[in-house]
Write a structure and sequence with these properties.
InterPro entries: SU10_MCP
Number of domains: 1
Strand content: 25-35%
Organism: Saccharibacillus brassicae
CATH class: Alpha Beta
Structural class: alpha+beta
Oligomer: single chain
Pfam families: SU10_MCP
Radius of gyration: 23 Å
CATH topology: phage-related protein like fold
Order of helices and strands: EHHEEEEHHEHEHEEEEEEEE
Number of strands: 15
Distance between the termini: 48 Å
Protein name: Phage major capsid protein
Helix content: 10-25%
Shape: globular
């Protein structure tokens, strides 16, 4: 990771942090880290990002007569979708005394602010509520949980293997299950998933394991279904009593302003700077998102 020292700052300097944000806070911001690592990062063109839905037209393309005029055929239509660009910013200011006691402390503080910025962005990517700013309030993006259409919600009384399959099958029925399916859930829901398979475990002896050869425990990272492989992503920002499923290939984070550092003008015996980004979540089709909701207080079915 790059180290920023005070003698590199100028009053007008802006330092890109695109590479750095991919490396910090990976476990604290799983969704943003995953999208960045997969290269699913795009460029926004305005305060409201718009795009055409990625969807296949269901009209019949077969059995056309010889010599047919294509002008008379049914043209494929795609919906226009949009999301708001949200501004994220964190700042630090260090006195000359603090800088003299520990050289490089401003650099450390900025790196901490970058991690905090990433965590805040990750939270909004998951649970953000849309506001285009027309009411005078700051623009806020629609998070993944709020992209789920009504038809994409599966309700259950407990977290079961069948309930998970039913939620993944929604993507299959919509034709959007190709690729990796990611399931975003909080720690309580993940524990409930693990409990389903607690009696279907095996013991592994690995002589090359770095912390010892004997490994115990039960943790479900992937679940194979007839409708796709589900990859579980535990995230503190995920809502309670729900698991959100999405085709990972349909998700992008778009930046109007990619994460970067800007120094503040020095005032008196102190210097500082801030990290800022302007971003949104692009979901290529809401048909690629589904949700399993569980009655409050329920987890797994009784054994």
């Amino acid at each position: 990771m790059a180290t920023f020292t005070s003698n590199n700052f100028t009053s007008a300097q802006s330092i890109s942090l695109v590479n750095e944000i991919a490396l910090v806070g990976i476990q604290d911001a799983p969704l943003l880290s995953m999208l960045t690592a997969r290269g699913q990062v795009g460029k926004a063109q305005g305060r409201i990002q718009t795009w055409l839905e990625y969807a296949l037209d269901a009209s019949n393309a077969a059995g056309k007569p010889e010599g047919e005029d294509p002008i008379g055929t049914v043209f494929s239509g795609r919906r226009e979708l949009n999301n708001a660009l949200e501004i994220f910013s964190k700042a630090s200011k260090i006195t000359g005394t603090a800088q003299a006691i520990e050289n490089g402390i401003l650099s450390q503080e900025i790196q901490m602010r970058l991690k905090e910025l990433k965590v805040a962005m990750n939270q909004k990517l998951i649970s953000g509520t849309f506001n285009d700013g027309s009411n005078g309030q700051p623009r806020t993006m629609r998070g993944l949980e709020n992209w789920v259409p009504t038809a994409g919600v599966v309700t259950g009384t407990a977290v079961t293997e069948q309930a998970i399959k039913d939620a993944v099958r929604v993507l299959y029925n919509n034709g959007t299950n190709t690729g990796d399916v990611v399931a975003i859930l909080n720690a309580d829901m993940k524990e409930a998933v693990d409990e389903i398979f607690v009696n279907r475990t095996s013991y592994s002896h690995n002589v090359d394991a770095p912390f010892g050869a004997n490994t115990y425990g039960m943790k479900v990272d992937q679940l194979q279904t007839n409708y796709g492989t589900v990859n579980f992503l535990v995230d503190r920002s995920a809502g309670a009593n729900a698991i959100t499923f999405a085709n990972a290939d349909y998700l992008f984070v778009d930046y109007l302003r990619a994460p970067h550092f800007e120094s503040l003008a020095k005032t008196g015996d102190a210097e500082g700077g801030f990290v800022v980004a302007e971003a949104t979540l692009r979901v290529m089709s809401d048909k690629a998102v589904s949700k399993l909701t569980i009655a409050s207080g329920a987890r797994t079915a009784s054994k």
